Amino acid sequence: MSTRPTFADITDQFAAQEIELPSWAFGNSGTRFKVFGTPGTPRDPFEKIADAAKVHELTGLAPQVALHIPWDLCDFDELTAHAAGLGVRLGTVNSNTFQDDDYKFGALTHEDERIRTKAIDAHLECIDVMDRTGSRDLKIWLAEGSNYPGQADMRGRQDRLHDSLSKIYDRLGEGQRMVLEYKFFEPSFYHTDVPDWGTSYTQVAALGDKALVCLDTGHHAPGTNIEFIVMQLLRLGKLGSFDFNSRFYADDDLMVGAADPFQLFRIIHEVIRGGGLNSPDIAFMLDQCHNVENKIEGQIRSVLNVQEMTARALLIDTEALTKAQRAGDVITANDIFMDAFYTDVRGDLAEWRVSRGLPADPIRAFRESGYQEQIAADRVGGTQAGWGA
Amino acid sequence: MSTRPTFADITDQFAAQEIELPSWAFGNSGTRFKVFGTPGTPRDPFEKIADAAKVHELTGLAPQVALHIPWDLCDFDELTAHAAGLGVRLGTVNSNTFQDDDYKFGALTHEDERIRTKAIDAHLECIDVMDRTGSRDLKIWLAEGSNYPGQADMRGRQDRLHDSLSKIYDRLGEGQRMVLEYKFFEPSFYHTDVPDWGTSYTQVAALGDKALVCLDTGHHAPGTNIEFIVMQLLRLGKLGSFDFNSRFYADDDLMVGAADPFQLFRIIHEVIRGGGLNSPDIAFMLDQCHNVENKIEGQIRSVLNVQEMTARALLIDTEALTKAQRAGDVITANDIFMDAFYTDVRGDLAEWRVSRGLPADPIRAFRESGYQEQIAADRVGGTQAGWGA
Amino acid sequence: MSTRPTFADITDQFAAQEIELPSWAFGNSGTRFKVFGTPGTPRDPFEKIADAAKVHELTGLAPQVALHIPWDLCDFDELTAHAAGLGVRLGTVNSNTFQDDDYKFGALTHEDERIRTKAIDAHLECIDVMDRTGSRDLKIWLAEGSNYPGQADMRGRQDRLHDSLSKIYDRLGEGQRMVLEYKFFEPSFYHTDVPDWGTSYTQVAALGDKALVCLDTGHHAPGTNIEFIVMQLLRLGKLGSFDFNSRFYADDDLMVGAADPFQLFRIIHEVIRGGGLNSPDIAFMLDQCHNVENKIEGQIRSVLNVQEMTARALLIDTEALTKAQRAGDVITANDIFMDAFYTDVRGDLAEWRVSRGLPADPIRAFRESGYQEQIAADRVGGTQAGWGA
Amino acid sequence: MSTRPTFADITDQFAAQEIELPSWAFGNSGTRFKVFGTPGTPRDPFEKIADAAKVHELTGLAPQVALHIPWDLCDFDELTAHAAGLGVRLGTVNSNTFQDDDYKFGALTHEDERIRTKAIDAHLECIDVMDRTGSRDLKIWLAEGSNYPGQADMRGRQDRLHDSLSKIYDRLGEGQRMVLEYKFFEPSFYHTDVPDWGTSYTQVAALGDKALVCLDTGHHAPGTNIEFIVMQLLRLGKLGSFDFNSRFYADDDLMVGAADPFQLFRIIHEVIRGGGLNSPDIAFMLDQCHNVENKIEGQIRSVLNVQEMTARALLIDTEALTKAQRAGDVITANDIFMDAFYTDVRGDLAEWRVSRGLPADPIRAFRESGYQEQIAADRVGGTQAGWGA
């Protein structure tokens, strides 16, 4: 008698799934060589939220939208109401201390106290925004580092980073948290101040319970076993959020699941194994660039990819797997694992979607909705949103 | 009796060395996150040439400047005269078929004949420029590829690439050449149409003697033994030019020799071994970004790094090395090799520089010249040159 | 009206598929740290062939077995008859010039003519074996290179390699071929004499039509787009054979499809695109190590993985894909591609298998057959086969 | 007035340097493809110690020798006396829980309590050895992990690892310590139980002050900034020891400084920056394989490489560097850093060596000593030491 879960067994679990969208995914993005614009690209945070709400409307998966400050600076009471009106909420607030000339050689780590203070203040303002929007998480990605050996005192920067983060941490209110993202390289090409999970972990562990690690799936050295890190951070109680995307080379920021769907499956398996699925303590966000594909469709495809891999991972016959693992039966253990991955859940998911009043095929529904044509016609004039690089 | 060359023995060889500077190195550059501007950045090709000429004036190493079209479009008769007046020549012409909206999904490889023809024509215009400037080489870097599996028909693109290159090849005049650069990834993140030396080689071999490979030292997969490729291309008679720079991670475009000076030494050793040093058939160019350092100083440091590693590589005791290699004496062979690398040639080079009427320390001389202050004061208003991304 | 193929449409194509097994996969293997032995491991080529035949009996996929000389030296008339009696044939002959003390510093590339001649002779003896076994292909993997900069004259070695290969090539008989494998690194850790497809290609292109490239899927730098190389070699008419396996890090030699099934799907898509599927000119071999899993099951799983991914790749709706590619519709093109990958063909394949008199689940059938228990009981005493390292 | 240190200024610092040799470096080693034997290779721990003592006699740098249990099992009172008689001491004790059939699927992490206990006991026996030899450090390298997704419960293994390490930790005596090594991959090819510094750090931090991290310079993902990790571990007070070696690809175990001398320089700079140079709390060990070069010469070259790079790193003009860093003067900071690296200290070191009664050129002295010929003649018969793989 099989102990393998059926689709019905797992419905409740993926039904509860929520994936947070990044407002900037709807703006233009590209490489240092070229940013291609596209008709209909939002010109302000309100239009970004509208696009995000469309993704949620068609998938039921994405009720929350992350903001990036200062890119999304506006009247946050209005924005909050606008979002609510469209059926979504404002979520994680992302700080930016890498686009001011003062930050050329660092922000929270800078040698100059004036600049450090400026960078700290920028974060405090983000917390002000959180107070207004009701956001829980302040996400900090530090684009800091150096390009040449000798350019920077890595040790001193690490100490200053701790001091700066402490000041920001102290400002966090009730129910607010800080998540610290790490990244292997870029925009710095010799050293990065928070290059790996170990650094992020030791920095946040030194602060307290409200500081956690943010794991961006594209921010690792080649060959890194990312699901191992997911396991470890869950074990240590320090996984605060995901930035999902996928990559073949560097921080490619492709649609999550596009480059290596099996890796996404393995990551979600460890999330489930560690009790992280649908945990209120972990934010599942996207952080992607849609350089060449339609941005709204790219977001829809991405949340569906996460949902599909979650469903597959939930189908693992855990009891049989454990038995095979204990027996040292490598082939059977791997077969059980792969069986779940290879099971095509798309038909079941489409049916389930329909049962919830959602379109069976959200991308087709988007195309048939005329939304893209509408925004292309409406959003004429003004400056398309982008990264401001 | 040692067979190791002395500094005097090698003087003639490095005295003949010429390194070509890229005009774009003097403009602003950065990452997709931010481009930092700096006082004194050139606003047009004439100012770029002036900065490049300063590098040559202080080092005697850089009599030629590569152009990038359309970034450097101007009156080329004037520019040629301007360069000559400053003691330098115009060199390799670099084409750009990656910044027009039409090229979003390819240029020379595009499915649409109209766009392919447009891209071919852009290259023909580059050859027109070469006719005006007297440049020998057309350098083609193809920023083409795809971001997602299934997005593109890689095979068809390869065939179309051959057709497009053939049409450009046919337009080459007497004494003109085409060099085809390869790159592992970026700006495309799934496939790149010319990703490795094998592809560049097979494409140019199918064209004829006037088509050669350009090796950019930053364009390889992690761990690639670049000096092996240098050896192989020299052996095959197909090494047309170098784009020198250095990297720790991806195409970081750091100053050549900065990340791994020993690698630069090994590359130049293979250039010497293969008869490529000071060969009229090989262009030794820089292709770098000075995102955070002074750009003119960055170029000076780079050409000096190439010169220093050339001098060290020339000091290898080839006779003793060969003997140790034949004897299978690994320790001695490696010791002989390292002995040359570890020999500090800087003092000798400074003396030699003085003997040629050049400053002993070109970077100090640049700082003392007041040139930077002068251009910062003069170059006010207008738009600083950059990549136009 | 969909243009997507049905399972019935593609049956003939995968029905013709043949995958060659390596005799050495049935012997013990491991790492430099430890080789674990297992009950039932073959002690001679005859027992290896018996195990391979079992794989074919249960899957119908593996009618041919590759040999490794000298590991499989024996009376080849007897071995040929033994194989035929078990329903399989002897296939590719693999040479070994890396386990004799003379080859410490090279074999076909060695500075010493005596050793080069010895290595050439070892290959001529392999061709003698081919004459006896009726094998078509001589597969050459060169474990040659150096560990330290300066240790070896890479250029001279490349020239000597050409000379040695020429002598071997000249001995090839009617209908015989040579395939030259490349490998990024290991057992040498600084330079490898045939490290990439470009080197293998240029070496075999210099020999003639009977020399081709062997692509081992585990022998590339991190991040390499392997399907691109498959495409390119097919385009150049120089893909002679595959060594299938999978990897997360280096030359891990895991079961093909285990590390990244989507990559295997993409590779087979390019095989189909390039006309290579079921081509008589391309040998589809496995080259794997089963360090911790049951070896016969490991081989069964591997050939099934290739078959499953072939079936999925054949399901791509090529017509619709081409249309989406031409339209620059990235999302649709990727969706069509992924749709085939995500389609679960396992049930259809099981039915088809049964229709051909094969077990629906070959691994279960193997377990129920009692074969493993039988060989564990029978193969007592003697020396278990391994790599003799 | 320059603030750059002179050679005289730094003499005391490098004079105090001690580098620990691994006993196994004198035995045979190789790859999974072949282990080449050489005349004179030790047959037992006593001969290994004799070879190690020769390295110390000629360099004055290596007064301590690390042992590997069970490879070096013998009468430790005799061995201690033997070492003392030759002027060296016994040092770090390395455990081995990867070569017993029981450990095929893990040792300290194994699902089966019996096997875990056996592995724990093996470590307790190592501490018994330490009690006899007076060694301070127990070094634990865990060759544990899995080859296939699904094969192992990574999370459970991490918990069991903690339990096992705790039991070993509790047995540590006064003045004894445990250092836990991490490694990116090999011999496992999907997951490794201690794959990165973060995991080693969090495991040892959970134990107490006597548990520290061991950093092997060859055990990182491609591109990893190792000096950053050195900095971080020193900052966290958890750097217990180094395993020095170098690599181009994976865990190549080449002579330290051979692959990238500039990287070694940067690592030692961070050691100095963090107060780790000549710290009694940090063991500076080699962990290398001399597959193709003379083993004793390989060890001499390695300790000299560390000494030379230490001397260069000590020559950095820290005051000027700090000033340039604070000023954001990238070119000057990098120049100051490189100036020390490029300074040829070999002549000064040779003179200093002579002043201490050591040979100017230890490798030449070794060759002239006749030691190698002597051991080749003497060590006939018996079994050459190796890894027993």
Furnish the topology, listing elements before pairings.
The structure is a homotetramer of 389-residue chains.
Chain A: H1 7-15, E1 20-22, H2 45-59, E2 64-68, H3 76-85, E3 89-94, H4 113-133, E4 137-141, E5 145-146, H5 154-171, E6 177-181, E7 191-192, H6 197-205, E8 211-216, H7 226-235, E9 239-244, H8 261-273, E10 283-286, H9 295-314, H10 318-326, H11 330-342, H12 346-355, H13 362-369, H14 371-378
Parallel strand pairs in A: 1-2, 2-3, 3-4, 4-6, 6-8, 8-9, 9-10
Antiparallel strand pairs in A: 5-7
Computed structural class of chain A: alpha/beta
Oligomeric description of these chains: homotetramer
Global shape of chain A: globular
**What is the number of independent domains of chain A?**
1
Straight-line distance between termini of chain A: 59 Å
| Strand order in space, largest sheet of chain A | 1-2-3-4-6-8-9-10
| CATH class designation of chain A | Alpha Beta
Q: What profile does the largest beta sheet of chain A have?
A: 8 strands, parallel
Outline of the structure:
Chains A, B, C, D: InterPro entries: L-rhamnose_isomerase, Rhamnose_iso-rel, Rhamnose_isomerase, Xyl_isomerase-like_sf. The structure is a homotetramer of 389-residue chains. Chain A is α/β, with parallel strands linked by helices.
Written description of the protein model:
- Chains A, B, C, D: InterPro entries: L-rhamnose_isomerase, Rhamnose_iso-rel, Rhamnose_isomerase, Xyl_isomerase-like_sf.
- Four copies of one chain form a homotetramer.
- Chain A has 389 residues and is α/β, with parallel strands linked by helices.
- Chain A has a single domain, classed as Divalent-metal-dependent TIM barrel enzymes (TIM Barrel, Alpha-Beta Barrel).
- Chain A is built from 14 helices and ten strands.
- Chain A has helices spanning 7-15, 45-59, 76-85, 113-133, 154-171, 197-205, 226-235, 261-273, 295-314, 318-326, 330-342, 346-355, 362-369, 371-378, and strands spanning 20-22, 64-68, 89-94, 137-141, 145-146, 177-181, 191-192, 211-216, 239-244, 283-286.
- The longest helix of chain A has 21 residues, at 113-133.
- The N and C termini of chain A lie far apart (59 Å).
- The model of chain A has no long low-confidence stretch (mean pLDDT 97).
- Chains in contact: A-B, A-C, A-D, B-C, B-D, C-D.
- Chains A and D meet through helix 5, strand 7, helix 6, helix 7 and helix 8 of A and helix 5, strand 7, helix 6, helix 7 and helix 8 of D.
